[in-house]
Each structure stands twice: as structure tokens, then as C-alpha cells.
Design brief:
With 51 residues, the chain is an all-beta fold. It has one domain.
Length: 51
């Protein structure tokens, strides 16, 4: 499961298992942590410092 080139990544984000997420078409805020088996929908932002 990929991290698409359409994902805008903030500073100091952590994606613990990049091979086990499906991320596309959205923005990840600064200092955010993304766990395994996460999938996002296009256009839904994740704000800064979320876990």
C-alpha cells in the first residue's frame, strides 16, 4: 500500500510502517504520527501533532 505523491507531508512526521498504509490526496500536519493500517480519503486533512 503506497504513500502517493499527492500527499503533502509536514515537518517531523512519523509513519511507523510505510508499507502498511494507504495515503493519497491529502495533507499531513507537522509532528504527526501515522500508525499501521491507516487509509485516508482524498481531501481530508490531518492537522498538526495528531496521533
Amino acid at each position: 500500500m503506497p504513500i502517493a505523491s499527492t500527499v503533502i507531508q509536514g515537518d517531523r512526521i512519523q509513519i511507523f510502517q510505510p508499507d502498511l498504509v494507504n495515503l493519497y490526496g491529502f495533507q499531513i500536519g507537522d509532528e504527526t504520527k501515522v500508525g499501521i493500517f491507516v487509509e485516508t480519503q482524498k481531501g481530508v486533512p490531518i492537522e498538526a501533532r495528531c496521533i
